């Protein structure tokens, strides 16, 4: 069974982690410079960055593993399933719990 959403979610997570690392390498020092007025805020920001860095590494590894395991096949065939409308199904088949056995 192929689940394309799992692959897409893993790819989106990798994009988000990549953007975070780019921001970390190129712009985080400038944004943390504003917090130097208060040592408490600076310490909390550094702690938050350290936690996000440590969490992003295994999250990226798990996303890569999920992308490898749920890679979409190029030769897959898309099968259209029939849409069941409410008018075609009898009311008794839809509401089976209203039977006399339910009381």
Weakly predicted, low-confidence segments: none
How would a textbook summarize the main sheet? none
Helix content: 55-70%
Quote the beta fraction.
Answer: under 5%
Q: What class would the helix/strand composition place it in? A: mainly alpha
Distinct helical segment count: 4
- H/E order of the elements? HHHH
Rg over C-alpha atoms, rounded to the nearest angstrom: 25 Å
> What does the average pLDDT come to?
79
First-to-last CA distance: 39 Å
What is the overall silhouette?
elongated
- What is the count of β-strands? 0
Keywords: Membrane, Transmembrane, Transmembrane helix
Transmembrane segments: 12-32, 44-65
Overview of this protein structure:
The chain crosses the membrane at residues 12-32, 44-65. Keywords: Membrane, Transmembrane, Transmembrane helix. This protein is mainly α and 103 residues long. The chain has a domain at 4-69. It is built from 4 helices and no strands. It has helices at residues 4-26, 28-32, 39-69, 91-94. Helix 1 runs antiparallel to helix 3. The longest helix is centred in the middle third of the chain and has 31 residues, at 39-69. It is elongated, with a radius of gyration of 25 Å. The two termini are 39 Å apart. The mean pLDDT is 79.
């Amino acid at each position: 069974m192929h689940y394309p959403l799992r692959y897409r979610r893993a790819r989106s997570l990798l994009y988000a982690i990549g953007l975070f690392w780019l921001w970390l390498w190129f712009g985080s020092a400038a944004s943390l410079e504003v917090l130097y007025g208060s040592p408490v805020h600076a310490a909390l920001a550094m702690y938050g960055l350290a936690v996000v860095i440590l969490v992003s590494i295994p999250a990226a590894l798990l996303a890569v593993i999920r992308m490898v395991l749920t890679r979409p096949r190029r030769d897959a065939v898309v099968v259209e399933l029939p849409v069941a409308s409410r008018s075609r199904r009898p009311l008794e088949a839809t509401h089976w719990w209203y039977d006399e056995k339910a009381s």
